[in-house]
Every structure is written in structure tokens, then in C-alpha cells.
Design a protein that fits this description.
Helix content: 40-55%
Bound molecules: 4-(N,N-dimethylamino)cinnamoyl-COA
Number of domains: 2
Shape: globular
CATH architecture of the largest domain: Alpha-Beta Complex
Distance between the termini: 28 Å
Radius of gyration: 19 Å
Order of helices and strands: EEHEEHHEEHEEHHEHEHHHH
Largest sheet: 6 strands, mixed
CATH class of the largest domain: Alpha Beta
Strand order of the largest sheet: 1-2-3-5-7-10
Strand content: 15-25%
CATH superfamily of the largest domain: 2-enoyl-CoA Hydratase, Chain A, domain 1
Number of helices: 11
CATH topology of the largest domain: 2-enoyl-CoA Hydratase, Chain A, domain 1
């Protein structure tokens, strides 16, 4: 699969890397970028050989500096609607993908770029990362789920502050408020992503898929229903050959050989 605005690679076995490649425009999300990202994530989701996905931006300045403001200013209402539909589909496809998706934020993650990172399962940031929802300065509000996902991650008060002031948050603060899981030196970003993706890829494939699914689906349920859902899904995990192998390997003091069934 080849794209105009996206590089697709496999930096390690079972790990797929998507690099948004418009560094001159700080990787801004033009409609084509959103379309191509959606295709590439859907393609990875349909490939049983992919165990973890990483998304980053080309160049050393930006992850994604937002929706492409120039493209947006020229859109008709219908084109704007299509952009919204594609964007939401992209974020949802990442969340529902059968593997964890890691955003490797190497610089500016503003507006739609921050929302893209938030739609990933977790974020690893370089010390140069900057996050923000500056939409109110353009007369709009976050439109790819930022108000909702940011609130779930950092809480109501901080989400309202960030979405109403447009204030930019640097990596150290992002770590403190729980927006990102790790902050590393810029030249260590890929290595940290690969370390985490590699750890995921070594675990039982069905269990990893189910664990992500439980967290993603459960967070919109009340606790009693979410725990009942967990019990049912636990039963599914218990029925796998990998559960037999994993527990037996522990007892026999050896490394498990998971087969993904
Ligand atoms: N769009 C288009 N081009 C952009 C861009 C963007 N978001 N951000 C930067 N660029 C371009 C600049 O125009 C410049 O292009 P040239 O002039 O060289 O041709 C080039 O990238 C380098 O940028 P700067 O020269 O500005 O670089 P600086 O280091 O001086 O500044 C900056 C970096 C990130 C502080 C600055 O570029 C900046 O403020 N960028 C805009 C950030 C921003 O406001 N982003 C949020 C956009 S609003 C929707 C759903 C979601 C959305 C929209 C619709 N629907 C449901 C329909 C999302 C909206 C947003 O994301």
C-alpha cells in the first residue's frame, strides 16, 4: 500500500509504523492525510500479523500541527461534513483496532493533532512535544472528539482550561497531568516506542486484544456492567489454547510459546 502523505513501515516484526509525511506543513491533517490514515489503520487492523501500531510525524518539529487550516478555510459545508465523518471514522478505527496504538509525539500535537494522539491507546512524548487545543482562537471547537477524550484522560477541570484558553502544554506538564505515559529524549522516542510495542508483541495475542477491548468498551459503561463484561471476556480468554500454554509454561518454569488461539 503506497500513499502520498503517509509512510508505512515495519520497524520490528509485528509492529507497524505510520509516519505522517508533510513536514513542510508541520504534518497538518489535510483531508487526504485523514483518508490515507484511515485506510492504513484499517489495513493494519485486517492484518493478523500486526500486534502493535505506532503513529508519528515526519521531521523534528511536529507530530501534527492540527487540521490543515488553509484546506479547511476553503471547504464547502459538504466538504466539511465529509472531513468530519472521515476524521471520526479514523479515531474510532484506531480505538477499535485489535492491537494497542501508540502515538509517538515528536513535536507539536495541536488541535486535530492532539486529538489524533488522544485517540491512540497511549502516548509517548519526546521532550520537545507540545500539546494543545487552540481551536477557540480560530472560532471553532475541537471537532475530532478532543473535548471528550481529553476529559476522560486528564479530568474535567484541566480539559475545560485547555479547551477554553488554548494554552499549550509542554512534555513535562503533559506527563504530570496524565496526558502522556512517558517522556524521553527526542532521539530515544522510536526506541521507547519499539520497547513498548515489542513487549506487547511478546504477550498472548488474544489476551492483548481482549484487554484493550475491555478498557476501551468498559470506560463508557457503569462499573457493575463493566465488571460483568470483564467476567464474560475473562471466560473467553480462559477458553484459549494460549491460556493453557501460558499457565503451564509458568508452572514448568519456561517461556510460553503463544499461538494466538
Ligand atoms: N494547517 C496548515 N498549515 C500549517 C498548520 C496547520 N494547522 N500549522 C503550520 N502550518 C504551516 C505554516 O503555514 C507554514 O507554512 P509556510 O508558511 O512555510 O508555507 C509551515 O507549516 C511552518 O509553520 P510556521 O512557520 O508557522 O512554524 P512556526 O515554528 O513559526 O510555528 C506553530 C509553529 C505550530 C506554533 C504554528 O505553525 C501554528 O500555530 N500552527 C497552527 C496551529 C493550530 O492552530 N492548529 C490547530 C488547527 S485547528 C473538524 C475536526 C477537527 C478540526 C477541524 C475540523 N471537523 C469535524 C470538520 C481540527 C481543527 C484544528 O486542528
Amino acid at each position: 500500500m503506497t500513499f502520498e502523505t503517509l509512510l508505512v513501515s515495519a520497524p520490528a516484526p509485528e509492529v507497524r509504523l505510520l509516519t505522517i509525511n508533510r513536514p513542510k506543513a508541520l504534518n497538518a491533517l489535510a483531508p487526504a492525510v485523514v483518508r490515507e490514515l484511515l485506510q492504513a489503520v484499517a489495513d493494519a487492523a485486517g492484518d493478523a500479523g500486526v500486534r502493535a501500531l505506532m503513529i508519528t510525524g515526519a521531521g523534528d518539529k511536529a507530530f501534527v500541527a492540527g487540521a490543515d487550516i488553509a484546506a479547511m478555510s476553503a471547504m464547502s459545508a459538504l466538504e466539511g461534513r465529509e472531513f468530519a465523518v472521515q476524521g471520526h471514522a479514523l479515531m474510532r478505527t484506531i480505538e477499535m483496532a485489535p492491537f494497542p496504538a501508540i502515538a509517538l509525539v515528536n513535536g507539536y500535537a495541536l488541535g486535530g493533532g492532539c486529538e489524533l494522539a488522544l485517540a491512540c491507546d497511549f502516548i509517548v512524548a519526546s521532550e520537545k512535544a507540545v500539546f494543545g487545543q487552540p481551536e477557540v482562537g480560530l472560532g471553532i471547537v475541537p471537532g475530532f472528539g478532543g473535548t471528550q477524550r481529553l476529559t476522560r484522560l486528564v479530568g474535567k477541570a484541566m480539559a475545560i482550561e485547555l479547551c477554553t484558553t488554548g494554552r499549550q502544554v509542554k512534555a513535562d506538564e503533559a506527563l504530570r497531568i496524565g496526558l502522556v505515559n512517558h517522556v524521553v529524549a527526542p532521539d530515544q522516542l522510536m526506541a521507547k516506542g519499539l520497547e513498548l510495542a515489542g513487549a506487547i508483541a511478546q504477550k498472548a495475542p488474544v489476551a492483548v486484544k481482549l484487554a484493550k477491548h475491555l478498557v476501551q468498551r468498559g470506560q463508557d459503561m457503569d462499573l457493575a456492567n463493566a465488571n460483568a463484561f470483564e467476567a464474560d471476556v475473562f471466560g473467553v480468554a480462559f477458553a484459549t489454547d494460549d491460556r493453557v500454554e501460558g499457565t503451564r509454561a509458568f508452572v514448568e518454569k519456561r517461556k510460553p510459546e503463544f499461538r494466538g488461539r
